[in-house]
Every structure is written in C-alpha cells, then in structure tokens.
Model the fold of this input.
Amino acid sequence: MNYRGSGMSVMEMSHRSAVYADIFAETKARMKAALSVPDTHEVLFLQGGASTQFSMVPLNLLPVGGSADYAVTGHFSGSASKEAAKFGAVHIAADTSEQKHTFIPAQRELNLDPNAAYFHYCANNTIYGTEWQYMPETGSVPLVCDMSSDILSRPVDVSKYGLIYAGAQKNMAPAGLTVVIVKKDLAGHERPETPLMLSYQRMIEKDSMFNTPPCWCIYILGLVLEWLEEQGGVAGMEQIKRERARRLYDFLDNSKVFTPNARPGSRSDMNVTFRTGDPALDKRRDAALGDVVHDLDAEVFIFHGVPPQILSDRR
Ligand SMILES: Cc1ncc(COP(=O)(O)O)c(C=O)c1O
Done:
C-alpha cells in the first residue's frame, strides 16, 4: 500500500514515475545477472505471450525472399513454424512428429540450411516432456530459442544466441509478460509493414516502454529473481530440479503401471510426462490428476519447476 514510502502500491504507479523506473531497472539488472547476458544483447519486457514471438521473430529476422530453419519437436515449435510460414519460406530442419515427439534429434540428424536467416527451436517441450540436452551448432546461422518452460532452470551461454524468448508465466512471473533477449545487431532489419509494437528495434530504443509495459509482472519478476539469487541462481535451480526429476524418473522407470513419455537422453527435468500404455487408463489418470491439480496447486507448480519451498511460504 505504500511501496518504499511512495504512498501507493506498485499496481497504482505510473510506469514513468521515478519509483517505478527503479523497479524496472533493478529487475532488468537482475535478469541480466541471472543469465550473464552480455552487453551485445538487450533484455526486453514485452507482452503478447510467447505466441506473439512466433510472428515477431520472422517479421524482424526473416528477410523477404529468405528462408528460416525450424526444428519441430513438439506442439509449440510446430505452431511457431506454421506462423513463420505466413511470412516466408520455412525449411523444416527436423520433425519428430511421426515418433510422437518422444525424443530430441541429435546434432547429426539436423538438416541445416547454411543460408537460413535463423534456426528456431524450442528448448523444452512442455507437453511432451522432452528437452534439448545440447545447444545446436549452426555455424553462422543465428540461434533463436523458445525457452518458455525452462528459462532460469539451468545456465545458458546467451552470447551464442541471436534471440531467446519466454512467456513469463511458467518460471518467472504472472502471465502478461514475455521476456526477450535479443542480440542488438540482429534488430533494426524488420520488414517495413512490421507494426511498431512488434519491432525489436523500437522496443530497444524505448527500453521496452514504447507503450505501457506489464508493470506488475515486471515487479514480481524482480522478486522471483531476488529469490532465485538466494537459491544459488540458475546453477542452484539446476541442482534442485535435477534431483527432483531423478526421483520421479526413478519411480516411473521402476513402475509396472507408468512409462515415461520421453526417451532417456531427451528427458526434460522440468516437465515429467508419463503414460500407462492403455489409452482408457491414461484417460482415467488424466481425470484423477486433474482433480489432484485442482485440489493441490503444489502439483502444478512442481511440474512447472518452482521448488516446493516457495509454495509452503505462500501457504
Ligand atoms: C514452450 C512453450 N512455448 C510457447 C508457449 C505459448 O506461450 P503463451 O501462452 O505465453 O503464448 C507455451 C505455453 O505453454 C510453451 O510451453
């Protein structure tokens, strides 16, 4: 109700006020520190969810007449590739749909176009429970990655990426905020018809404040990042989730009823997915889990990677 003596809560503040400017700058600095973002890259706080990036990426990075590589390893990378195809040529560098997205292709299985404008992949396939265990090697072709469901859960060498994006609502803050980390020299080449709201360059120039940013979500992100630092940062997060996932996979691998969906070597530490092998039973399990999830929001958070401690704090 009286944030830092301002006489008002964060929800009431003007995004241009001095008190809010401090919140914004602190959150951005924490985000840069958490992922060791180099000065070659800019951190943007945008809106429209990760799904808006499915079109913002090609509008800005895919020149007219150019082609972009997409690895389709799950639902969201499939959606991203279809959206990009509205703007130009899309070359499918890998597609695991025939194997029901149970694995991540190895580097040698990627069919790369050396002239691609960029290579897009989704680091963690939320629905299928698979996660890239390596960073694809694409030579001079910029890497573009959807990290919505594993950002801040492990160290990442940001300098190797052209662009990283993530909807905040899985690992960072309430829905309404999308974090984008973009290499500055990739921005500024958007198509002429690109709406201002979808121009990385415009957002860089305006420090994400071309219009009113999602102020409350950014404030909460700052708190989450502060908490993350206390847990040992992204390296600490990686240890926590690895141990928790190991216990789940051990249980599933020894279960007579359940089988993990993802193949070993491609398994996600963030989303542990499993089946019974009997579609009727799977349906019953989903119904039962639905109830559990409804009764105990803990399960939702655990599957989305937030350690239980934060839950008990909230209760
Ligand atoms: C990996 C991934 N990408 C994209 C999305 C879509 O995100 P949004 O709802 O923020 O558009 C999701 C949502 O679950 C996701 O898990």
